[in-house]
Design a protein that fits this description.
2 domains, 5 helices
Amino acid sequence: MTLTRGEPYLGFPRYYFIFWRCTIGTNNKDLLINEKINAAQVRLIGPAGEQLGIVSSNSALQTAYDKNLDLVMIAPTAQPPVCKIMDYGKYRFECDKREKEAKKKQQIIETKEIQLTCNIGEHDIQTKLTHARRFLGDGNKVRTIVKFKGREMRHTEIGYALLDRFISECSELGQCDKAPVLEGRNLTAIIAPIKK
C-alpha cells in the first residue's frame, strides 16, 4: 500500500493494539494484563467489584474486551488467580497520583556540613553555632568536622573538647546521632534534629 504525502494511515491491524495494551502492564509493578495472563482458569471480579465466579481466562478476556476494558491479574498467588475487569490506564493514573501525594508528604532530611579548626576564635564558633541551629531548626542533620593540621594531631583532646562543646550548645534543637569519630585528620560527629 502506498500513501501520498499528508494522507493519514488508519489501517493498523488489530494485533498492534493488543500488543500495546499488553506491554503496559510489564513496566508497571509487574501486573499481568490481557494476553499476558496464562492461567487456565481465573476468579473473575467485575468492574463494579462484583464476583463473577471461576471462568476460563479466554472467556474472562472476552468479557473484558466486550466491555472495552482490560483484564488485570490482581492476586497471582491465589488458587485460582484473581483477575479484575478495569480500565488499566485509569488505574495506573490513580496509582501514580497516590504515589506523588505520598512523596509530597515525605520530609527529605539533608545533611549540612560545618567545619571547625582547633584554634577557632570565639566569634567564629558563635557564627557556626548560629548556622547549625538554623539547619537543625529546618529539620536537617548537621555533620560537624574538626580538621587537624600538622602537629595538632598530637592534641586530639582539644578537638574532642571543642566538638563536645559544640554539641552541648546545640542540645536544645539537636542531639548527637553519631558520636565523635577520628577519621584520618578529621574528627567527625553528626547532630540530628530533635523530633517534635
